[in-house]
Amino acid sequence: MATTPPLQLPVPGERTSRTIRRYHAENGPVFPIELPGKVNAWMVTSYDMVSEVLTDDGTLYSTNPRNFTALNDGTIPADWPMRQLIEGDHPLTKDGADHRRLRGLINRAFTSGRVRALAPRIKEMTDELLDRLPAEGGVVDLVRHFTEPLPVNVICELFGVPEAERRPLRERSSVILSHTATPEEAAAAGAGILDQLGAFIQRKRDEPGDDLTTGLIRAQEDDGDRLSDSEMLRILWLVLIAGHESSVHLIANAVIALCTHPEQLALARRDDAWDQVVEESLRARNSVISVMFRYPLADVRLGRVTIPAGAPIVVGMPATGMDPARFGGDAGRFDISRGQETHLGFGRGPHFCLGAPLARLEARIALGSLFGRFPELRLAAGEDEIVYNSSLITEGPVALPVVLGPAGTGG
Ligand code: HEM
Fold it and tell me: Domain containing 20: what range?
């Protein structure tokens, strides 16, 4: 066991992605941390170690919170805000056969053909938002008017969530993911979203539509194994939250990267290389900064450290894309023309992001259309003046002031 005192996460005033990279540089790839609420955990940060932990099939590193000792033995209080995020029956809290069963069910509704067929509709929704931007005047908040509504609308339309219910879903998700929420706020957001989705599922049972919630309900009914209503509710909870939050921030992070690297923007426009912009953003500016948690089922040796069974491991993402052995000596540079070494932006192993094809598709359409429409778009604030959200899981700006410039002919 290491004797170093745990490192605080988050550090006030420092972006958490930067803190994780700094801790990695100062302490190596595995170290003890202290989370809000004085909860002790471990963090792994290198490409190889993160890959090793995520690739496990649940036999050594579980995702099931019943294997988190301090959560279940009374050490961590019942109102610890992060419980809202890590408890509940869904694919991210299941291992092995239990996980395959739930994931298989979502896959039956969420087919790749269905995602591919969405491209024209995503383009249409993107164009509708872009059409409205100039009316916002000189300086436009791109988060409020573009990078947030687009992924929220896409995932909600896909699952048939009506427009009036989208804003509360977005707001409650942000609270659940925030590390500054009080226990009361977290509990209210957690209960609010479950009530909202419970009522929504009931309505969909009564009035089926041509949407994925109806598809899931059908898959649930056809399933010989009978999914419980609570599993159904939590699956929807997971796909609706995971299905917008990371995309909202990834698109905004990519806009910032392009505006601060005009030569990369010029390259992307010249070669129509939006796919490469998306991959480079996932590597170097990812919105998912940590994966919570993995729980060792036995004492595990990682590097020079032994992590005891039942201790939570936070999988830190930001340093994985900076590994010079994988990405070269200039790994810190945002460069859309670098080679194709696989990044870990969507995770790895059995829990690899189920929404990766959708996330890639919508980010590519959003960025290509935005810069096609407004080729001279620029930030209206210094890079260091941009304010980021307060979450340990995802990272992106809460507002992104930009000047659009004249509309171009593309996009
Ligand atoms: C830029 C956007 C996105 C990023 C960076 C991202 C990243 C990730 C990562 C790193 C994981 C692995 C978590 C773990 O191992 O514990 C994951 C899982 C997941 N993601 Fe995404 N995601 C994105 C968008 C989406 C979208 C659009 C959906 C839509 C449904 C989605 C649904 C999921 C689900 C359901 C899981 C859990 C899979 C499982 O446990 O088997 N994600 N995502």
Answer: 7-403
pLDDT tens profile 13-31: 999 999 999 999 999 999 9
Please give the number of the atom of ligand 1 that sits closest to the Cα of 238: 35
- Whether the CB of 91 sits within 6 Å of ligand 1: yes
Strands 305-307 and 313-316, bridge-based pairing? unpaired
Q: Is 272 contained in some domain?
A: yes
Measured distance CA(61)–CA(300) in Å, rounded:
9
Catalytic residues: 242, 245, 247, 353, 362
Distance in angstroms (rounded) separating the CA atoms of residues 180 and 162: 29
Residue 38 exposed, middle or buried by CB count within 10 Å (0-12, 13-18, 19+): exposed
Residue 104's domain is classified under what CATH number? 1.10.630.10
Q: What angle do CA 365, 371, 372 make, to 5 degrees?
A: 80
Q: What are 43-95's pLDDT values in tens digits?
A: 999 999 999 999 999 999 999 999 999 999 999 999 999 999 999 888 999 99
Q: Is residue 1 part of a domain?
A: no
Position 384 in a domain: yes
